[in-house]
Write a structure and sequence with these properties.
alpha+beta; five-stranded mixed β-sheet; 5 helices; 5 strands; 41% helix; globular
């Protein structure tokens, strides 16, 4: 069994400018959210109520998305809760996009709230492609250089 990370070796995470702005607008405690994310990454996919199935995005070698507890769809929340209680994989239509930057830690990139995350991934319109390209570019910069340049959507 691997040793638990010490504070000096523990992974770190930061928010993209997009999430910083969104969290400030919605009065979301960014450090608490980052703490939940890091705890989930440490403990594993099935150990967090807030985060579910984790997957690499199609057509990306860096950007991942994790399903998050649904907020807007009562039936989806009921299914999430049932799967949590039965220790089954949890999926939703709400995603957090992120990149594992190795020695740089994690960059939490973008959240698509429910419903809409699956459509966001599959829709081929120019607006969605522009956002996905910006996410990919920010992930690439963070992965290779550990930097995050301000980018507008």
């Amino acid at each position: 069994m691997p040793a638990k990370p010490t504070p000096a070796t523990a992974p770190k995470a930061c928010l993209s400018p997009w999430l910083q702005e969104a969290f400030a607008t919605e009065s979301i405690d960014a450090q608490h959210f980052i703490g939940l994310f890091l705890q989930w990454k440490q403990d594993g996919e099935d150990e967090s109520y807030f985060f579910g199935k984790d997957a690499l995005n199609l057509q990306s070698s860096l950007v991942r998305h994790v399903h998050m507890v649904p907020l807007s769809t009562p039936d989806a929340l009921a299914a999430w809760d049932t799967n949590w209680q039965r220790h089954r994989k949890r999926v939703s239509d709400r995603f957090l996009f992120y990149v594992d930057g190795g020695i740089h830690g994690y960059l939490l990139l973008y959240i698509v709230n429910d419903p809409g995350a699956h459509e966001f991934l599959s829709k081929k319109d120019a607006a969605n492609q522009l956002v996905r390209s910006a996410i990919e570019a920010m992930a690439d910069e963070f992965y290779h250089f550990g930097t995050v340049a301000p980018t507008s959507l």
